């Protein structure tokens, strides 16, 4: 078991949930999905970024023979984007990129990501990991 991580969509943040005697236990896959999507992955060299390319410092450290797989997603790059079909395609690509490690490491057989903009200023991600559904609504 893992600590139960909860996504507060209205506040655009994640946090651990409490239980009667401390922190609640939860599903490891849920935590992996939240960390993968909502931790800022370092911008790629060809991303148009002025200033801080963000990213997690631990991505630079390989452990033993393990390959260094960047943590997080590049969804943060969409924060100042207009709601266009191109931005939705990038949101889907960033989501798939962030979750690909689940397949590579054998934790999932399939990952699908669909992005939509149900109203002005709202990005919806509908994700299925081995048919387990997730829905996140973001105000980038």
Which helices and strands, and how do they pair?
Elements: E1 2-3, E2 5-8, E3 13-16, E4 18-19, E5 22-23, E6 25-26, H1 28-38, H2 85-104, E7 111-116, E8 123-129, E9 132-138
Antiparallel strand pairs: 1-6, 2-3, 4-5, 7-8, 8-9
Report on this structure.
This protein is of the alpha+beta class. Helices cover 22% and strands 26% of the residues. It is built from 2 helices and 9 strands; from the N terminus they run E-E-E-E-E-E-H-H-E-E-E. It has a 3-stranded antiparallel β-sheet with strand order 7-8-9, with helices on one face. Strands 1-6 form a two-stranded antiparallel sheet. The protein has a two-stranded antiparallel ribbon with strand order 2-3. Strand 8 and strand 9 form a beta hairpin. The longest helix is centred in the last third of the chain and has 20 residues, at 85-104. The chain starts with a strand and ends with a strand. The model has no long low-confidence stretch (mean pLDDT 87).
């Amino acid at each position: 078991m893992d600590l139960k991580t909860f996504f507060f969509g209205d506040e655009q943040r994640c946090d651990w949930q409490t239980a009667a005697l401390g922190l609640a236990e939860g599903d490891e896959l849920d935590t992996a999905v939240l960390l993968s999507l909502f931790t800022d992955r370092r911008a790629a060299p060809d991303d148009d970024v002025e200033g801080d390319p963000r990213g997690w410092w631990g991505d630079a450290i390989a452990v033993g023979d393990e390959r260094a797989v960047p943590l997080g997603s590049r969804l943060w790059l969409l924060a100042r984007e207009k709601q266009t079909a191109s931005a939705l395609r990038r949101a889907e690509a960033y989501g798939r990129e962030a979750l690909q490690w689940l397949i590579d490491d054998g934790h999932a057989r399939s990952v699908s990501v669909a992005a939509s903009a149900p109203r002005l200023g709202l990005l919806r991600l509908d994700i299925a990991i081995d048919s387990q559904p997730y829905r996140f609504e973001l105000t980038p």
